[in-house]
Amino acid sequence: MSTPTPPDWRSANRALWDERVPLHVAGDFYDLEGFRAGAEALRDFELAEVGDVTGKTLLHLQCHIGTDTMSWARHGAARVVGLDFSGPAVRAARELAAEIGLSPERADFVEADMYDAPAAVPDEAYDIVYTGVGALCWLPDIERWARTAASLLAPGGFLYLAEFHPLTDVLDDETGTRVVRDYFARGAQVEEAPGTYADLGAQTVDNRSVEWQHPLGDVVSALASAGLRLEFLHEHDASLFPRFASFERSADGYYRFPDTHARIPLMYSLRASKP
Description:
By secondary structure, this protein is an alpha/beta fold. The protein has a single domain (2-273), classed as Rossmann fold (3-Layer(aba) Sandwich), CATH 3.40.50. It contains eight helices and twelve strands. The strands form three sheets. The chain has a seven-stranded mixed β-sheet, with helices on both faces. A three-stranded antiparallel β-sheet has the order 1-7-8. Strand 2 (57-61), helix 4 and strand 3 (79-84) form a beta-alpha-beta unit. Helix 1 runs parallel beside helix 5 and helix 7 packs across helix 8. The protein starts with a strand and ends with a strand.
């Protein structure tokens, strides 16, 4: 349901994420045992589109427990910094980094709100600002997000974003064949839902979430207004989790509609550089 932004949106979302951190650390979705042993956490298209990060500095906004952040260090980034507003997530990321042998100088993690990143992160600017999937919906102001990210980029650096496609937000949850929500809704979407994408049946207490829908045009326009130059915008027909009940898991590990369903974009990725 789209409503005016409630004054406690940030604290409600933080409580929700704080409670889910131990579920994500202990569960199978993030496979931390495999990650500790060297398993890849990043998606194949991200690795191809970001390219060689050897010797570069990278800031990961809204990093959660940091597996993607640390993966960029494994791929050769000289220094990575992850930022998240959840204290338990940041502590889990720091512990995991120590376990796999990444020093704080190589992989640092900061607890702060995304909009406060310029004052919170240890460096003035980074070669790459990275934002992974499932992040933008937790932010009410997409233009402020773009300005914040752009301010943290070194000249010649780029922002890379991989995100769930906003088209999926308007479809029915069962089959994904009917438009049941307003694509252009801008108000807060307040919901009460137990569990987590990593464990749909998990018993949870802090279940109130406040999210926002950001149409693709708003995201691209915000980056342009922040002075960044769009290099590409790619749309993908696969998802990372069973967003719709009709999804089937493909051999490559992604989730897709069955062959009888017309293909639509389920995720998108973009890269925008700072002159």
